[in-house]
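Q: Here's a chain of 280 amino acids. Please give me its 3D structure as tokens.
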Amino acid sequence: PGVRWVHVGDRGEDLFGVYDQARSLGTDWLIRVAQNRRVETPTGSDALFSYARQLPASARRRLTVRRKPNGVTEEVELSMAAGPVTLRPSRSERAYRHLPAVACWVVRVWETHPVSGAAPLEWLLCTSLPCSRAEETAFVAEGYSLRWLIEEFHKCAKTGCQVEARRLEHADRLEPLIGLLSVLAVWLLQLKFVARDHPEQPASTLFDEETVEVMACYLKKPAATLTAGEFWRGIGRLGGHLARRGDGPLGWLRAWRGWQSFQFILLGASLYRDHQKRCG
């Protein structure tokens, strides 16, 4: 109750079977389209792409997006338009031709003022979410703009926390492990973004006093002035990331190795302090 599940997918999920499956599960969906399929519109049959690109803008909003090929995030002004359509299986989707049509909305999101020298941003989306009002269309656009964050979470969980490498074969054992590692993945993701966007933020705002002191000791820096950026670089160093000029940003595999190594250091520090207390 009170929760709305929305399946968000990239162009690889533009399959009629995906739409039908979401419909049968009773969940909403928001998928970037790849196929210029024939659709039914309020004015008759049309190609999906041409219909979407004729829709007038109903809203504008500044959103943070990731621009290819370098993956740098930036804030841009996007125009948005939406119109109702009815989807049917394309000619290549013979396995789904017996299924009933899917009524939904197509949403076009495009860069209002394209940057010179860069490919203008454009998303063509199909969604079961309502888009009859400007604020609803903006909600859909903003929801899709978060897809890269979801992808980053999955990279952290799969590549970093190595969920798929656990070799558990039964769901009752795998599910609690995924739940535990997902919490850790969210925590590492938060640390990464804070270190990237606010590198000078004090590490003490993210970690307890003992954790900050141990990392500061490892880095040979004062604990009182240790920053989130320095803490994240310390995790990278423990994972084997040398942070040289041409090395690029810290990846999830080395971040995970560094985090594991740091946990052993924390354990050693805790055991040493307990020993000191017992021995006076």
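Q: Can you summarize the key feature?
A: The two ends are 55 Å apart (CA to CA).
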